[in-house]
Amino acid sequence: MQDLSRRTLFSLAAAAPRSRAFASGQGASAASADAVRTKARRRIQEQHLPNVPLISHEGKEVLFYNDLVRDKIVTVNFFYSKCDEICPMVMANLVKVQKLLGEQVGRQIFMYSITLKPEQDTLDVVRIYRTALGAAPGWTFFTGKTEDIDKIRKGIGFTYPEPAIDRDTSQHIGNVRYGNEPLMLWAACPGQAHTKWVAESFEWMVHPELNRIQKS
Questions:
Q1: How much is the pTM?
Q2: What domains sit in the chain, N to C, each tagged with a CATH number?
């Protein structure tokens, strides 16, 4: 074993507190970063992801944030069963998107569609609509109270600046909001966009670290 002089022992002893302080500093920095992320995540939830109740097509009462969004990768869009303008095109496209995503839906990605007209779209109506559409497991449809659904719609940013237009559900935006809640990554895309592009956009939330820019 190498012989250690008194000077060497002293220098090692002096270095030890500095090493512990450095490690402690790193731990404090990590803890501080975690606190910032937790605070930011909570702020996003409070401002944009209301924890209001909904009822799934399966008849289950759930809370939007706690049960559907927290710790998940999700997609959210709005519809109503008797919509004959943008809804049929968006929903038909999302059926194709779900097929492209395959088993990821319901495991890694959770698809949610919420009616804008719960007074018309009762639980039975939503079930029939979903079945006729051909949605597979992992894609859940919801109804609920008008005021709760409106909080979600406004929270995720699907609004018009003109109040009269915003109140008109027939003018609703055909976009899909998608995000990775724990990573606080959120985006939106047109529901009628190219099917493969929409599916890839959703998949990006599963592996955001991958470079998806294609070389020309």
A1: 0.82
A2: 54-204 (3.40.30.10)
